[in-house]
Amino acid sequence: MAAKVAQPRGGFNFDNYQRNAILADKGAVAPKVTKTGTTICGCLFKDGLVLGADTRATEGPIVADKNCEKIHYLAPNMYCCGAGTAADCDHTTHLIESKLELHRLQTGRESRVSTALTMLKQMLFRYQGHIGCALVLGGFDVNGPHLYTIYPHGSTDKLPYVTMGSGSLAAMAVFEARWRKDMSREEAMELVKDAIAAGVFNDLGSGSNVDVCVIEKGKVDYRRGYFKPNERGQKEQSYKFKRGTTAVLKEDIRHLVDVVEGDAMDLS
Question: E-strand spans in 78-234?
C-alpha cells in the first residue's frame, strides 16, 4: 500500500521550485514566454459603442510596425480589437469573418454579436490558450449594442466598458474615473481616445497612434489615426554623410571566395 504524502497546512510550497531546479540541472529547457504589448478598449454610449486601439506592433524589444491595424472587421455591424500574437489575431478574426459571411448567406439575416462570441470562445477554448488572441468584440444587432472581452483560454465578460492588453490597467483607470451611463457619441470617443493614450504613454508595449471605431444602428465610422500624439518632428539638421566620407581600403574580394566548379544546385 502506497504511503500518503502529507500536504503542508499553510505557507509556501517549494516542491515545484526544487523539481524545476533538478530538471534544469539535467539539461531541460524552460518554456519561453512571449511578451506582447497592446492597449485595446471599448465602451458603450447612449446610441451605440466605441472601440479603440493603439497602433504599435513589437518583436520583443523592437518596434516592428508603428502603424499596424488592430481593429478587425468581422461583419458590417461588428468589429473586433485584437491583442496578443499578431498572426493569431489576424487569422482568427479572418476565419470568424468568413464563417459569419456564410451564416448570413445561409440564413438571410444580419449577424448577431452573440453568434460571433460563441464562435470565437469555442475556437479559443479548443486550443487551450495556445492561440495568443485576446479580443474586445463590439457590435450592434437587433438586440442593441453589445461589448465583450474574450480571453485566450475562451472565457468571456460582458461589461459596459472593457480593456485588454499590456496597457489595459492604465486604460481601465481612465474608464473607472470618467465613464458614465448614456454618454454622447463625442464624449465616448474622447474617453476611448484618452484611455488608449494612457496605455500609449504608460506601457512600453503600446505606442504610436490611436484608432477608433464607432458602431451605431445601421452605420459604422472607422477612423484610422484619430489621434496622433507621437508625430515625428522636423529634424534641425541633415545627418547624411558626404560621398567619400568612409575610405575604401580594398575592392578585391576574390581571395575571400572559394569558387567550386559544378552545378549550382543538386536536384537529385
Answer: 78-84, 133-141, 144-150, 156-158, 161-164, 210-216, 219-227
**Bridge partners of residue 211, in order along the sequence:** 53
- Sequence-distant (6+) residues with CB within 8 A of 72 are 79, 80, 81, 82, 89, 90, 93, 94, 97
Query: Is residue 38 annotated as a catalytic residue, yes or no?
Result: yes
* DSSP secondary structure letter of residue 255: G
Q: How far apart are CA 54 and CA 190, in angstroms?
A: 14
pLDDT digits (tens, 9 = 90+) for 124-142: 999 999 999 999 999 999 9
Tens digits of per-residue pLDDT, 214-223? 999 999 999 9
Active-site residue (options: 38, 58, 93, 163)? 38
Q: 17 to each of 4, 12, 22, how far by Cα in Å?
A: 21, 11, 9
pTM for the whole structure: 0.80
